What does this fold into?
Amino acid sequence: MSAKSLFEKVWDQHVVVPESEDTPAVLYIDLHLIHEVTTPQAYATLRAAGLPVRRPDRTVATMDHSTPTEPVTTLKDIDVVSQPAAARQIKAMIENCDEFGVHLYGFGSEHRGIVHVIGPELGATQPGKTIVCGDSHTSTHGAFGALAFGIGTTEVGHVLASQCLLQRRPRTLAINISGRLAEGVGAKDVILAIIGQIGVDGGTGHVIEYRGSAVAGLSMDERMTVCNMSIEAGARAGMMAPDDTTYEYLQGRELAPKGAAWEEALVRWRSLPSDPGARFDRELDLDVSNLAPMVTFGTNPGMVIPIDGTVPAKVADPGFKKALDYMQIEAGKPLLGKPVDVVFIGSCTNSRLSDLRQAAHILRGRKIPDSVRVLVVPGSQHIKHEAEAEGLDQIFLAAGAEWRESGCSMCLGMNGDTVASGKLSVSTSNRNFEGRQGPGARTILASPATAAATAVNGAVSDPRQFLN
Amino acid sequence: MKPIIRFSSHTVVLPFDDIDTDQIIPARFLTTTTREGLGDALFSDWRYDSDGSPDPDFVLNTPAAQGAEILVAGNNFGCGSSREHAPWALLDYGFKAVISTQLADIFRNNSLKNALVPIIVDPKTHAWLLEHPGTEVEVDLEDTVIRLANGQAVTFPLDRFSRYCMMHGTDQLGFLLQQDEAISAYERERAWPI
It folds into this structure.
């Protein structure tokens, strides 16, 4: 038998009907994650056709995108804290899940939160699974050795109705990551460096497998941060081989296999990593030993520099000039020391407990200048409670930050948490597109450590300044 | 969906690379629960001034762009989010096709599901289209070519199944539901738990 990659194994195991020249493959989906923004039209399709949800037991639902990060105890609160359209969408999600028999991790649930945070947290995300969601950052779940990718609302309807998708097999790209990360440099810096190197369309049509010694040394939280932003390189998905770190993370979680089923799962999962000699359509090597904390300067995640570097000057490119004009950032100058208005710590990229700990480590005992608004939004209610049990909330509040309920929040500004027009934000989220955090908002992407260092100084700062 | 065989229209050009879904339709418009009516929000932050009045300098607001059904955009159009609201907004505005050198995967998939024809062309053809805004282009799904005013016919890649569905106005869900027996067999026979 020829050597197979992790991707090929997972793909092959889920083909219900093979692809031909005339028709795409019918691919079985093990886990469908849904949220309030990309499902109402899909539910409407099912309702109009009189179709049930085929596998409500393989569907995990929550509310995150347009959901408020102000406390909501009763449904009436939504009308107070949310815009009418957002409130309608949230109520529609509750009604639709109720009507179609899908369990919703909604208000009051310990596991309500960002869909890509709760999947792993519940243990629903597992190696070897096919996982989809009407959200591009579904690539996050690839950190467990799952094949996970974002889909549109029509496809959400397809999965609800058939538990399958029509798919053409993507190509593969191996990124071999070696070296040892320096202190103050983390997973966010690695993925920003990769996107900077291959570009925002460098992964188009491909599933990336991140491999190598540097990947094996990452925690699950860090692996998720890397895989999360695969889509920012245009990739269909990002994957990493499961290993003992993966299994330790999953063991005992609510939806993870138990007892004999766990032992059987382990045997299956251990067969998933790419075989020696597995072939990829493309390969790329990256040594992270000399990597510095990375920050973006433009209006896509590929426009990125080391924090101690200077903004490049590509004056001939009209798009480049447009981006710098929008950002009010000058070519040839450093970003370090640039005053900021807002710091956002959160999003499916960086809102897990270890991210909050990193930020708290720098903010502990320090004061944020009055000129800066700092918003800390945990990825799930469970993470919120874990952080509070450790006293992280008190560190954030004492420093002058806001501490909120879980959700996508200021990553995309759908729920009222926005950056005002013209204001400059340093954000641990994943997109620095024009207006992403609000109309006219300017965004610099960075790691939680860089964001926290920036919060303390009120200006773009190198987290290595706070190493002790 | 209405079947599409061929149509022609003048083009409108947005020459920038990497136009993301947040530009096509900003997130604040995604609180809708229907597919319709998103055309007014298309390219909202570029199209309107902060007081809501149309920016006369933005290409879609120019007289020449009115009625255009084909958008020619810079490389990697539609990158970013999975929001199907992006093709919905383009279609609701009146576009029927997008031409670029590369389209982001999820945007391309979403376009195919809604019969917004995603057309990828070689850099030379693309450069010619960028240099000739407003030129008349014929899109032909039968032959999978676009025909240009300079006499050139340029073929473009299109998955055979999606092409069939667009030409017949077929909803792909119907095809998928016909696979029910195979899906049930897979669920029954898989060696490890579903």
Observations:
- The mean pLDDT of chain B is 97.
